[in-house]
Design brief:
Blueprint (H helix, E strand, L loop, with lengths): L4 E5 L15 E3 L12 H5 L2 E9 L2 E2 L2 H15 L6 H14 L5 E9 L9 E8 L4 H6 L1 E7 L6 H4 L13 H12 L4 E5 L12 E6 L2 E5 L9 H12 L3 E5 L4 H5 L2 E6 L3 E8 L2 E2 L4 H12 L4
Parallel strand pairs: 7-8, 7-13, 10-11
Antiparallel strand pairs: 1-2, 1-6, 3-4, 3-5, 5-6, 9-10, 9-12, 12-13, 13-14
The structure holds pyridoxal-5'-phosphate (PLP).
Length: 295
């Protein structure tokens, strides 16, 4: 059984019914050329994506990811994706992957080729990296200035904040800066001094028995993992809240986690080179929940 699956997708307009949805997918060898040189996704990062986990054959939270894909398309003025088509593509890829293990499944919807066929879409599933180390031992984090205020989304909608666009060069640059400073990851701070998110993760804090995360007011991506974990925490009797979190509260938290779809929950052990309380037991509990089949 292959451990990599790549499908080129002929995107259907939302709501279109077709008799043979499978005929809109073409499985290709990921090592072979598949995209045109004029692709706006590669030339300008002009497109959107989602990455979801496939755990032991189960695509985690596929609906939440597809709804966010639709929201990103709306923000970027891309044609609305047909969610049943994407669901069928995810199901086909998940069925083709080995029944055991963790995989990262990436969905891409690009603006396509200028003056050519548009949009372009594909799915690419590969084995997930081994995150057992950071899940068990946590990560050292530095705070970095994001360069805009927490209300930037409303003032400058062309920044496309809140959409998961392909333009991740700045996010990767922030991770390199974190490594240069001797850390593993970073938490972005808005220019007006509020906690935002990591370059590839959401941030949650615990003070006493209350879990909080920055309000998803548009400047950050609303994480599917954070949303799912908050649901779990509420169902198991714990308090959660969305609110503006001043940066000083990172220093007073009883625990801080970064959450994302494939790495899942990792606890923060140090913040700007100062040790912070780390809750290994709660992290294990969160990851046991996040690795169980979720819809
Ligand atoms: N924020 C950003 C900027 C991200 O890139 C990601 C995921 O890649 C997240 C938050 C977490 O989102 P999710 O939990 O849906 O993976």
């Amino acid at each position: 059984m292959p451990d990599t699956v790549t499908l080129l997708i002929e995107p259907l307009p939302a709501g279109e019914t077709v008799t043979d949805i499978e005929a809109t997918f073409r499985e290709v060898d990921a090592a072979e050329p598949a995209l045109r040189v004029g692709e706006l996704s590669t030339q300008r990062g002009d497109g959107i994506f989602e990455t979801l986990a496939v755990s032991d054959g189960h695509p985690q939270e596929a609906r939440a990811h597809l709804e966010r894909l639709r929201n990103s398309a709306r923000i970027c003025e891309l044609p609305e994706p047909d969610l049943p088509q994407w669901e069928a593509a995810i199901a086909r890829a998940a069925a083709a992957l080995p029944a055991h293990g963790e995989f990262a499944l990436k969905l891409v919807l690009s603006r396509g080729v200028e003056h050519g066929p548009a949009p372009t879409a594909w799915l690419h599933a590969t084995p997930a990296a081994d995150f057992s180390g950071p899940r068990e031992h946590g990560v050292r984090v530095v705070t970095l200035d994001r360069g805009y205020a927490r209300d930037a989304a409303g003032k400058a909608p062309w920044l496309l904040l809140g959409a998961k666009t392909l333009s991740y060069a700045t996010n990767m640059a922030a991770l390199r800066e974190a490594k240069r400073r001797g850390a593993d990851d970073t938490i972005f701070i808005s220019s007006d001094g509020y906690v935002m998110e990591g370059p590839t993760s959401s941030v949650i804090l615990r003070h006493d028995d209350v879990y909080s995360t920055p309000a998803p007011t548009g400047a950050i991506l609303h994480g599917t993992t954070q949303l799912s974990l908050f649901g779990y925490l509420e169902r198991t009797g714990r308090r959660t809240e969305y609110r503006d979190i001043p940066v000083a509260e990172l220093g007073s938290a009883d625990a801080i986690w970064l959450l994302s779809s494939v790495r899942l929950a990792v606890g923060v052990t140090a913040l700007d080179a100062t040790s912070v309380p780390y809750d290994a037991e709660a992290t294990r509990e969160f990851n046991a929940y996040l690795q169980s089949p979720r819809d």
